[in-house]
Specification:
This protein has 414 residues and is an alpha/beta fold. It is built from 17 helices and six strands. Bound molecules: guanosine-5'-diphosphate and magnesium ion (MG). Guanosine-5'-diphosphate binds next to helix 4 and helix 7. The site of guanosine-5'-diphosphate has 17 residues, from helix 4 and helix 7.
Length: 414
């Protein structure tokens, strides 16, 4: 009997080893993975050698580190270019709320001010002093704001890029840090153009002119390969902000990517999908960890563990802005009752989500359907515990609700 069990265990470890890489590539390829290439290779060889305990610890360490890793984003540019407004928008905070970065005021200080993300305090956006003064000196500026501490720089201008921006970038480059140019307030310029040339106005053409103009300014200052993102802080779903998000996520190292991705506002269905994919990957890695430890198909689902299910559901609702406080905000914004906003959502009632003729059967159905519809988490017989089906089911339901809310905010009827 014992011999049989051992043989079974060995076969399962081998099966994990052979399926790990293809399955992981499948679930993580679209938006960049949480595990670095080194870690992936390490796990692969550890599984082949049967060092399953070490694999479980390494996965746990990586998951924990990715939750707590600090991410410091510097937002700079001249005074009045929309830096503080951008910071509030990313943090999902109204400009009049407590802890918001104050906007529209003239800057007098040379101090950088950090603003924590309300849900992910390890993600900080730094409001840097303006760079537009005639006596601007990039070296002293970057010294004063402690250039070392930032992961990357977002450089704002609401009109044209100048020699000051370029000087700043030259210093940032010396420190081997990444930077991104943002041309803000495009909504205002479009509106002005529309008013002044109502007959010939073309949104696409005006945007192209703005883009070309910024690129020419930068090229005139010796930066011909620069890229500029056109953004309205009052409408992040529009223009180039979704592209900027995507670029930043791709450029970050694997260990920092998830923290940033989860902290980003849901400005597009693609952003919601990215978050969903990141969380799906986490669920998969948790499942792999359990699977590696047990080296047996895990069957650890405890139906009456309502508390932990409730916690998991609340966590996802919070991540996707489907929590009670966010729903109230959406209702106020759309001038509708909270009941109306809640009506089409499916993730608000835990018991309704898990009850059925036979809860277990239903869960397995959901799990199977979900997995095969989402790039084969079950991938060719890779077993994951029923607990993870539940998590996937919750994640899927909450992400769908987030899309319903997002469409509602855009004015598409619920
Ligand atoms: N129309 C429009 N106004 C903006 C935008 N971003 C900022 N503003 C406004 O521009 C002014 C200066 O913005 P602020 O964020 O304080 O600039 P900062 O000095 O760079 O921090 C404020 O009155 C903002 O409301 C934008 O994208 N579009
Ligand atoms: Mg400001």
């Amino acid at each position: 009997m014992e011999v049989l069990d051992l043989a079974h265990k060995d076969a399962n470890i081998q099966s994990l080893a052979s399926k790990f890489m293809p399955c992981y590539r499948m679930i993580s390829s679209r938006f960049g993975s949480l595990l670095s290439e080194d870690t992936i290779a390490w796990i692969q060889s550890a599984l082949e050698e049967g060092r399953v305990g070490e694999v479980a610890s390494r996965i746990q360490e990586t998951l924990e580190a990715s939750e707590n890793i600090p991410l410091n984003i510097a937002v700079t540019g001249e005074s009045g270019s929309g830096k503080s407004t951008f910071i509030n928008a990313i943090r999902g905070i109204g400009h009049e709320e407590k802890d918001s970065a104050s906007t529209g005021v003239v800057e007098t200080t040379m101090k950088a001010t950090p603003y924590e993300h309300p849900k992910y305090p390890n993600v900080k956006l730094w409001d840097l002093p303006g760079i537009g003064t005639p006596d601007f000196c990039p070296e002293t500026y970057l010294d004063q704001v402690q250039i070392d501490q930032y992961d990357f720089f977002i450089i704002f201008s609401s009109s044209r890029f100048t020699v000051n921006h370029v000087k700043l970038v030259q210093e940032i480059r010396k420190m081997k840090k990444k930077f991104y140019f943002v041309r803000s307030m495009v909504d205002k310029d479009l509106e002005n153009e529309r008013k002044s040339k109502p007959k010939t106005f073309s949104k696409e053409r005006v945007l192209q002119i703005m883009r070309d103009y910024c690129l020419k300014n930068l090229s005139d200052e010796g930066m011909s390969e620069a890229r500029v993102f056109l953004v309205s802080n009052f409408d992040l779903s529009n223009y180039d902000f979704p592209k900027l998000e995507e670029t930043l996520v791709k450029d970050l190292p694997a260990c920092k990517r998830h923290a940033f991705l989860l902290a980003l506002p849901d400005v597009s269905e693609a952003a919601i999908d990215r978050k969903k994919a990141a969380l799906q990957e986490r669920i998969w890695l948790q499942a792999l960890k359990t699977g590696a430890l047990a080296a047996l198909p895990a069957v650890g689902f405890i139906l009456n563990d309502i508390d932990s299910m409730d916690k998991c559901l609340k966590h996802y609702r919070n991540v996707f802005g489907v929590d009670d406080a966010s729903l109230l905000q959406v209702a106020q914004r759309l001038e509708r009752s909270v009941e109306e906003i809640k009506a089409p959502l499916k993730s608000l009632d835990l018991l309704a989500l898990i009850k059925g003729e036979s809860a277990m059967d239903q869960l397995l159905k959901v799990g199977g359907g979900f997995c095969s519809a989402n790039g084969g988490i079950m991938g060719a017989g890779f077993h994951i515990g029923k607990t993870y089906y539940i998590h996937l089911h919750f994640l899927n339901t909450v992400a769908n609700d987030a899309k319903i809310l997002f469409r509602g905010i855009l004015g598409i009827p619920f």
